[in-house]
Design a protein that fits this description.
Layout (H helix, E strand, L loop, with lengths): L6 H20 L5 H19 L3 H6 L20
Helix pairs in contact: 1-2
């Protein structure tokens, strides 16, 4: 899979993932909500490190490129 995250989005995901992991690990209790938050934070870190997001690929979103050409998009807007 090609990289589909731009540099800004990659940096934001890295920062949010790191903040999430630290926040969960510093909390006193660890339950289901903390487990889900930790899992999502790890996914954000992996997205930021690899510059790939499977949800963005499935939705046809690509922020890695500079140009947005809707005519060559895999998902067309129907009129």
């Amino acid at each position: 899979m090609k990289a589909n995250l731009g540099k800004l989005e990659q940096g934001v995901r890295l920062c949010l993932g790191a903040i999430g992991v630290v926040a969960v690990l510093r909390s006193d209790a660890f339950g289901a909500i903390e487990g889900v938050a930790l899992l999502l934070s790890v996914f954000l870190l992996l997205n930021g490190l690899t510059a790939r997001c499977y949800l963005w690929q499935w939705l046809g979103v690509n922020t890695a490129g500079g140009n947005c050409d809707l005519k060559t998009s895999s998902r067309q807007v129907q009129q």
